[in-house]
């Protein structure tokens, strides 16, 4: 056996060693590269294709699968703060291959253009998403819009501002409400008092700068933090740290006075059938926010998940996909009848 391995290595001229060496080197020295390679592989596995479109000088980056048109509405997914289009990959795994799915990098995130604070407020982001929708032709027929956390705030405001675009709406643990009960995270923010003059220098729990802060963030976001290999955590941190100044700018824009309760201020404008999904153990945005939406829109469907925190797409991807699909199909069938 040892001789066979030796002969193989000699006959291949060490070719087999090159990818192995590259993988090992990336794992040890460039964990951020390893994580990006993992996402690339996962996209390929799910059949998600990365695409770009331009509106003037502004560039949008997104992934897509399936063909638009037909009786089934497209699904447009908006990620949360400091995430990217790839956060939806665990969910896409459980969606039908023939469903047209689009996952957008939100303004300034990952491959989408970075401009300035005017595009990072919730209303600014909604305007940019509308620009994207028109650029790729998603506005040719109404689509099902899904948004989580910051993306939930944007999705709700979008549905209020551009009702003709949206045939159904799913808000997942959305920001933008005056929550009856403060979450652990909101309590921390109040202690930080980010509106004081020295706010830009204060640490924000969702913008980690060390492994200890990253692990604390995961504990805050998840009911039970997933068991992620240490080297992948280092990769996540390595990819985030160069963007931390940008994340801080976005964060201050979305918690500012103009954006803080913008979803709540637009609830009365939402006409599309609405689904609300929330983890009962959300420590970022308290589940009591669901009652705020239900009070304003009593006909909405509310799905609360036991033993689940803020990152539902990561913690319960199959359940999440099934809930969205059931609602998606129910509303599609109503429209066909």
UniProtKB/TrEMBL annotation:
Transmembrane segments: 12-35
GO MF annotation list: monoacylglycerol lipase activity
Residues forming coiled coils: none
Keyword line: Membrane, Transmembrane, Transmembrane helix
Keyword field contains Zinc: no
Any one GO biological process: acylglycerol catabolic process
GO cellular component terms given for this protein: AMPA glutamate receptor complex
Residue ranges annotated for the AB hydrolase-1 domain, each copy included: 73-317
Protein name: Abhydrolase domain containing 6, acylglycerol lipase
